[in-house]
Every structure is written in structure tokens, then in C-alpha cells.
Amino acid sequence: MKKLSFLTRTSLLLGFFFTLDKVLAFARSIIIARTFHLSFELDAFNVANNLPDLLFALISGGALAMAFIPVLSSTLTINGRQAAWDLFSRVANLAFIVTASAAVIIAIFSEQIVKAQIGIAPGFDSQKQSLIADLMRLNLIATLIFSISGLVMASLQANQHFLFPALAPILYNVGQIFGALVLAPRFGVHGLVYGVIIGSVLHLAIQIPALIKYQFRWTPSIKIDPAVVEALKVVGPRLLTMFMIQLMFIARDNFASRLSQVGAISSLTYGWMIMQVPETLLGTAIATALLPTLSELAARGDWAGFRLTIEKALRILIALTLPAAAIISAGIHPLVRAAFGFDDTGTNLLTWTTRVYMLTLCGYAIQEIAARSFYARKEAWYPFFGVAVRMAIYIPAALTALTMFRSIGAPAIAFAELSLTVEAALLFFWLGRKMHKPLRVDGAMLKGLAAALFGGGPAYVLATMLPGGAVLTAIIGMIVGTVIALAIVRQEVRLLFNL
Hints:
By secondary structure, this protein is mostly helical. It has 21 helices and no strands.
């Protein structure tokens, strides 16, 4: 019971800080959007992040962190904290060396990478491609810093410390807001990248006090011993998994650059970001809190507790994300117009792109639990196979959107992201097979769909028909819809406080 109470407290703590992070992220995005509008400069900034993000996801935080936490948790439990810090140091040293080497290669060949037909932005002219290459080189500086900071987050979470890792993204956004408000007016779009670099420094700096608290000792070594080999066995498949995920983001922007639709890339970026707000507050917060506990349960062989924990999380996420997607979709249009200040064409483009992405919200949230369940079991190949299936669906679907539904533009490409729902369902089917029994959600799907219908319907009617300003009526409609939806899924809401 104490462990479940800890999970609830941790999930709520992460949810609070993730909310604050998303508020700042929206403030940053709105400032940038109002400064650059749906323009090439904004598209260039967004597309220039792709390859540095790929490098970060593979070598630094994204790939290593999720796979590294179970290994560190096991080392902490069996060999103690100093052995865990020694393992962390050697893996971090390797990650930094590989990241730096890859960054140098990318910086040298950045123009060729941008211009290649299978590259970052083949649809733009040479002048625009040169700007993207320049911005990409600058972004690599932040990637080098994140190569350490991302692993620090994983190490602190393995120590069951979540506060400073949760604060780190907030300070990252602070740095970017400084870049947008102070540096962009002077340096143009380059000022945005300077803000990214400042934010990455703050992201690392805020976590240093926690390292001191947990008696961090750095080992200047890259020795490959059995502990590092064990870590790499889990991390290797995770690297391939993240590589394929990031390839889909690169492919998305590659396809969007061929649409001849101004703002297509930015609308996909912002639409995905808006969908990620409820996904982060629910899916990421709960899954992040769950991973160390699932790792401990797996290490002890407590498969009954492992299964019960997953089933509770699934019920909560399914019941909450389905109505959240419907209610947000119902009221999003006037909020997008008010927040981003786009013209009617830009507002409609972003609204419909966001609504399509909202169809993937439930899949994203439960996929976070599914993937972490396998990493907790140190069975990292299953998430790789799942994302391979997803990619096999995504690429043909996106190409079909580009060729047959070109007039629709960015929203048509966003539809291809529904491939993730297939991945999530497949992962849980495999997980049920591994546990010799299908995972049960006890009617959460039906409740979630009912809450989406009876919450989203009134939200849309009130948002569009209630007298008054569009923003006010949208907010009222969403509040009423939320109250109705929560009444329907009240059991799952109570379960959240007893996770």
C-alpha cells in the first residue's frame, strides 16, 4: 500500500511540473509564432531541430534514459549507490564521445544532409536550405550538453528522485523564452537557437544539487565490463527503436516540405505539441513514475504486482485520454486563433491538424506504459518490433496522403500517425502473451468512449452556439464537457489517487 501511495504522489508531482512545463512551452511557442507567424523562418527553425533531436534521442537522453533506468535500479539494489555511479559514469562518458563524434560529422555535411532527396528538407530552395543547415549546426551544441543532462535525469529517477529532473525541462523552456523575447529581436531566427543552447545549460545545471545529494562520484573511464555490457544489451534495441521513431519525424517534415503549403511543417509541429500536453500530463507523468517501480517488481519476480500496476495505469489512461481528446478538439479553434494570432487560413490549418493528432492521444498514452513494461523486464526488442510495424504503416500512409490527398495538406499527413495506435495494441497483446493472460481494463474503453461522446458533444455545441465571445464560449463548453466526462469515469479518477 505504501508503494502505491508513493506512485500516486510521484505521478501528481510530475503532473504538476509537467503542467508548468507545458504552460511555459506554450508561452514560448506563442511568442515565437507571433514573432515569425507561419513563415519560412519558423519552418526552418522547426525542421532544423530534426537531426539534432535524432542524435539526442539515440545517444543521449531519449534512448538511454528509458532503457538505462532498469539497469541502474538493479545495480542500486544489488551493489549499492557507488557501483551505480561508476556504471553511470562509464556509460555517460561513452555517450558523450559518440555524440561529439556524430555532431562533428553532421556539422561538416549539414548542407548535403539538408539537400538530399531523402534528407531533411529537399523541397526548399538552396538559400532556405543553407539557413536550415546553419541553424542545425548551432543546435548540435545543445545536443552535446543534453548528452550528459539526459542521462543525469535517468540516474536521478533510478534513485527515486523526481523533483530536479522535473524542474529541468521548465528551465529549458525559460532559456528558450529568453531567446525568443531578448535574442530573436536582435539576431532573428538565430536568436531562437541561442535560447535553445542557454536552455540546455540550465537543464543540466538545475540537476547538479541532486547529484551532490546522492553522493555522485565521476569515474573517468570508458571500460567495458559486464555491467556496461548488460546495459548495452538493453540500450541497443532502444537505440534502434528511437532511430526509427525519429526517422518518422524526419519523414513527416520531408513530406510536408513537398506540399507547397506555407506553414505545413509548423502546423504539424504545433499540432503534435498541443496533443502532447494532455499526453504528457497523463501518459508521461504516470509512465515515468511507474518505470522504477515496475523495474523493482520485475527484479523481485513479483509478477502479480507487476500486472496489477499496469492494469490500473491502463484503466486510468484509457478512461481519461479518450474524453480529453474529444473535449479539446471541440473547443480548440478559437483558442488557436487567440493564442497564435494566425490568419483564418493558418488557424484552420493548425486546428484541423491538431484535431487529427488528438485521435492518437489514447494510443500515445498507453504506448508509454507498454514500452516501459518491456524495458522494466529488460526485454527491449519488443518495443523495437512494435515501432517497426508502426513505421511499416506510417510511411505508406504518409505517402498516400502526399499523393492522393495533397489538397488537404498537413492534416492528411497527420492521419498517418494513427499507426501508433496499432503499435500500442500490438505491444499489449505481446505483453499479455508474455504474462500468459491478456491484460484487463474492466470496461475502461467503453466508459472512455461514453465520456468522449457525452463530454465532447456538449462542449462543441456550447462552444459554437452559446452567445458571447468565441474564446469564452469555447472555455465554458470545455469546462461543462469535462464535468460531464469526469462524472462518467469517476471510478477511474478515484483509482488515480490509489495507484
